[in-house]
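Researcher: Structure prediction, please.
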Amino acid sequence: MTESNTKKVVAFGEVLWDCLPSGLFLGGAPLNVAYHASRLGATSYLASAVGKDFLGDEVVRRFEASGVQTDLLKRHPRWPTGASVASLDKSGDATYEILEKVAWDEIALEEEDSPILASADAFVFGSLAARTESNRSLLLGLLERTEALKVCDVNLRAPHDDLDLALSLLKRSDVIKVNDEELRRLVGGDEGEFLDCIKALNQKTGVDLICVTLGSKGAMLWRRGRFFSLPPDDISVADTIGAGDAFTAALTMGLLEKRGLEECLVRALKLSSFVASKRGAQPLYKPRKLFS
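Model: Predicted structure follows.
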């Protein structure tokens, strides 16, 4: 891990273009986390892959402009840059059709990348990128070796929503972030057993720090029986794309900066609410102004 005040965050997984009715928007949960971690002051990396195509070139250009490091972003020799077809409902919530056999389905890191991975303060990952055997093998190896804070942001998107795989990854994490629907799916609980569901997930995984996002009701942070629950900021929602990823980034940075759990939750909700009030997952902002 790094010894300087600047934290190093590595996010592992998908990078893709969201094809919306209003145009193409760069996305993917790990990419969004890396973007916001960079905005929040970290040296951030995305361990992923893009194709040797125009969209891949544009990803690299956007990374360089935003401050996200490109060292762990590889170019796949055969497969194209990832994409998804996204549609928004009347409330601004998004649904996705994620294309397969794309570059991030086969992430290939090299020996020369080891120093970056070994010095990471946080390693953020999800379950979607583990949909291929090669990525699963790579991810499990990285989780076995890293000494970083391991943050798992579950991403149960059909048909890539293998609950056994998700639980296997969660057991290897230090921090779990799920939404309320994912929580109930993972433990088989119903709406009337919310806290019991959190305790059940703790028992299934052995992870003591669990965060549950509740949509319009805010979020809850649970640690060893203590919990904080807060509502979101009062905003006009433009779209929810990337809001959960912004939450994950702010939560991760708060934990790395040794902030109190309630302050971590306040900052994560403030950033996610801000992102939901804007179009697209990567709006520009100044953290000092946002959190003042």
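Model: The first helix runs from residue 29 to 39.
Researcher: Thanks, that helps.
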